[in-house]
Amino acid sequence: MALVLEGTKERVLDLLRLRPHTAKEVAEALGVSRVAALKHLRDLEARGLVRSEVRKCLGRGRPYRLYVAQDREAPYAALCGDVLKGVERVLGREGVVRLLLERNRSLFAPLNLETLPLRDRLTRLAQFLREQGYEAEVLEHEGKLYLCQKRCPKLALSREHEALCQSELLAYQELLGLPLQREERLAEGGNCCRYRVE
After folding, report:
1. Residue in 97, 95, 93, 84 with CA at minimum distance from that of residue 166
2. pLDDT tens for residues 78-95?
3. Right CATH for 7-72 from 1.10.10.10, 3.50.50.60, 3.40.50.620, 3.90.420.10
4. What span, in angstroms and rounded, lies between the C-alpha atoms of 18 and 42?
5. Which of 87, 100, 122, 133 is the most buried (most CB within 10 A)?
6. Which contiguous run of DSSP H or E holds residue 188?
7. What is the pTM of this model?
8. Does 3.90.1520.10 match the CATH number of domain 92-197?
C-alpha cells in the first residue's frame, strides 16, 4: 500500500531520504519555522518513518539531534542522489541534463501526442504525470494555457540537482512541440511547478 502523508511531512521525508538533517536544516530547506519542522519530525518519528540520534559537536559546541529517514524508499533516494552526483562529476551538468532528457523521451514515447490539439496534448500529459506521482493539472488564465504540478515525486532530489527540472522542461517542450516558460518551481519554494505555453 502506498504511503500517504500530508504535504509538508512528505517534503520533510523526501529531504531526509537524501541525507540526514537537523531540525534547523529542515526548517531552512522548507521555509518553515524550527518549531513547525520539529513537529513534523516528531510525528514522522512516532510513525516509525524517521529515527533521530544525538551527535557530539566537534570542538566545544553542544550536542545536536540528527534525523534520518528509515522508510523503505530511503535507500533508493540516497542511491539516486549519489548516482547523480557521480554522473555530474564525470559528464558535467549538461551531460546529466542530456542523460535525463533521454530517459524522459523514453518515458513519454508511448503517449503519441503529435496529432492531438494542444489542450488535449496537455491534458493527456497531465494525466500521465498524475500516474507517475505528480499532482498535475491544466489551467487556463487570461487566454494562456498552463501545466501546473503541485506535487513532485522527486522534489528533494530536484533541490540538489536542478538538472532534473531542466531535463523535464526540455522533454515537455519536445513532447508538446511548443516552447514553455517555467514561471514557478517547487524546488525553489514555489507553490507549484508552473509552465506557461508560449
Report:
1. 97
2. 888 899 999 999 999 999
3. 1.10.10.10
4. 18
5. 122
6. none
7. 0.74
8. yes
Would you say 26 and 54 are in contact if contact means Cβ atoms under 8 Å apart?
Answer: no
d(CA 38, CA 46): 12
Mean pLDDT for each consecutive 10-residue tract of the chain (198 residues)? 66 87 91 92 92 84 89 84 93 94 94 91 95 91 93 82 93 94 88 92
CA 138 from centroid of its chain's CA atoms: 19
Nearest to 161 by CA among 77, 75, 81: 81
Q: Which helix (H) or strand (E) holds 197?
A: strand 193-197
Q: Which three cell numbers stand for residue 114?
A: 503529435
**How wide is the angle at C-alpha 104 spanned by C-alphas 102 and 107, nearest 5°?**
115
Rg over CA atoms, the chain: 19
C-alpha cell at 16: 531526509
Domains in the chain: boundaries: 7-72, 92-197
Contact 181, 196 (CB under 8 A): yes
Take residue 176 and report the three cell numbers written for it. Answer: 508538446
What is the number of residues in the chain?
Answer: 198
Q: The cell 501526442 sits on which residue? A: 113
Contact 195, 183 (CB under 8 A): yes
